[in-house]
Amino acid sequence: MDGVIVDTAKYHFLAWQRLADSLSIEFTHEHNEQLKGVSRVDSLERILQWGNLVLNNAKKVELMDLKNKWYLEYVEGVNPNEMLPGAHDLLLDLKKNGVKIGLGSSSKNSVMILEKLGIFSLFDVVIDGTIIHMSKPHPEVFLRGASALQLQPVDCVVFEDAISGVQAAVDGGFRCIGIGDPSVLGQATVVVSDLRGMSLAQLQSILKQ
Ligand code: GL1
Which of 75, 123, 145, 165 could form a disulfide with 37 if both were Cys (CB 3.0 to 4.6 A apart)? Predict the structure, then answer.
């Protein structure tokens, strides 16, 4: 979802950066690239590791709550205009053609965001951070998604903007369309710059690769 369907990855970045700043830990776009697709708790652990900071659980929960409070403030006004190029058209096209659609996200806020965008009803299943136990790069989120859709991984295509997500898809036995920079998402089956012009025919051809 974040960074694939809607431009919310930038709000996660801002919130994590603000948290890292408050702890005097350096946090750059390169650091952020490694957090994309990674759950809230695992993201915090990585940031603390980068800053060589050891904290107790109560403090970690406090920091995660703070980051989420900031994130919720940033996404308060999120609206359908912030959907990424081509994403909405593709969802509508797949729906019209009877293709099953699942959301696989590490975020615990995904249903709220889908509702703000008015696209929740397009998804046959939603597997998100409130359900999974292991964050991407573990393939659990996609394996559960395929299973809920009663499909085999080999018959699904995963869309991903994150290194951790591409890894999860590949390890789960899925074809994967990377959205972004080929030098970062090189493990994906194909990499595109955005979803404009993406069609069902292209998905069918990728499934044959
Ligand atoms: C969590 C992380 C975010 C991001 C998403 C997955 O979201 O905090 O930085 O990696 O997972 O896209 P959330 O805090 O909404 O559960």
Answer: 165
Fold of 9-75: DNA polymerase; domain 1 (1.10.150)
Q: State the amino acid at position 194 in one-letter form.
A: D
pTM of the model: 0.95
Treating both helix axes as pointing N-terminal to C-terminal, what angle do 40-50 and 57-75 enclose, rounded to 10 degrees?
110
CATH H-level superfamily of 81-208: HAD superfamily/HAD-like (3.40.50.1000)
101-132 pLDDT, tens digit per residue, is 999 999 999 999 999 999 999 999 999 999 99
> Are the beta carbons of 102 and 124 closer than 8 angstroms?
yes
HEC string of 107-125 equals CCCHHHHHHHHCCHHHCCE
Query: What is the per-residue pLDDT across 43-76, written as a single tens digit (0 to 9) for each?
Result: 999 999 999 999 999 999 999 999 999 999 999 9
> Does the CB atom of residue 32 touch ligand 1 within 6 A?
no
Which residue is closest in CA terms to ligand 1's atom 13? 107
